[in-house]
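Notes, p. 3: input format for complexes.
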Amino acid sequence: MRVRLWSREIWRVLWLSALGCVLGAIVGSAGFGLALGLAACLGYHLYQLRALYRWLTLHPHDEPPAAVGLWGELFDRLYRYQKGQRITQNRLRATLGRIQESSEAMRDSVVMLDSHGDLEWWNSAAAKMLGLKTAQDRGQHITNLLRDPRFVGYFNARDYGEPLTLASPIDERRILQYQITLYGDDERLVMARDITRLHRLEQMRRDFVANVSHELRTPLTVLAGYLETYSDLAEQLPPRLGRSIGQMQAQTTRMQNLVDDLLLLSRLEIDQGGDDHAPIDIDALLHKVADDARALAKEQHDIHLVLGSNAQLMGSEQELRSAISNLAFNAVRYTPEDSQITLHWVCDAQGAYIVVEDDGDGIDPVHIPRLTERFYRVDKGRSTATGGTGLGLAIVKHVLLRHDAQLEIDSHPGKGHVFAVTSL
Ligand code: ADP
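Output follows (424 residues plus adenosine-5'-diphosphate):
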């Protein structure tokens, strides 16, 4: 069809030129006749071109001008294409409208950013929560409006696996949780949720645990003091009473350990940390931890040190010592006699590692994801018998969080464990 229309158009030019030639020859000038024929062709095409131009510029939504042949086909095709585009556009506009309506209905803030991080669109919740003003703020970079250095760091780091919790930029009393999602061509969607109520509840829980633990400290110290006095007199007491006093002493010590661990955890959660950070001599620290672990093991385990680096780490020596001691003491308490326990200190291009390795019975991998939860124990009886509070690995996790480090646990039944502290 297309070829036929095209050849018909060529025939039309040839025919008009030939007719011009013949008529020109009759009146004595074939050349003039040919020029006249070609001018007629040109005039026809110019006329159609003008019609096309007027249609597209003045009435693009109206029916196309009437035409035959190639021009008619061109007009029809353009009209059909335009109509298709208009339908797609309307459909897209309706979808966009629905998306905007549903985002408007959301109670969470939604802010769409372009690939440069400039504001493109936001819902009314974002206007209220983040104080965005439509006219002035569109096209501004997000970090010009949310200037908290923690948000700027989070935004630029491009690692959005975990949300960021911050006070609202317009109301200090409101706590917002930001989550950024990358989509499309490096565009970003910033969502913010008001978690003030949840935050307050969490704060109340922490304060409650810290206060109760604190209040329990004094009565427990008094109890422990009296029990010690009575145990000194145990020989003068009837044997049954002597045994009870021994048991009461053991339980009081357990409660004291529990209260101490709960207080330590509360402190790690409440206070931001970082004030006492200084370079730590890890070699010396591991020597101290190994000595403490040997004292606990009472020569029933072999404890080795493999120190492969003399680098120093920035951090709180007291907190890191408590974390690594927890790992080393667990290795002593949960492995049978004559087990080998090794503390490694390694530094390479990927980072720094403190590894506590033992060749005990190993833990079934199903427990590993939950080991750092408070009071999670693989074998409750064994943990209690060895004096465990169930909070040791939770403390380790919190200390490491404050040092930008991670705890990696690798353990298989029958093959021992590796508890590694990684710092980048
Ligand atoms: P606990 O005070 O009970 O030791 P932790 O949080 O320190 O609490 O440890 C949680 C659980 O992880 C322990 O109860 C124990 O079952 C297991 N665990 C920790 N370290 C080891 C280890 N080196 N070998 C075997 N099991 C371990």
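The pocket of adenosine-5'-diphosphate is lined by residues 326, 330-331, 334, 358, 360, 363, 371, 376-379, 383, 388-394, 417 (CB under 6 Å).
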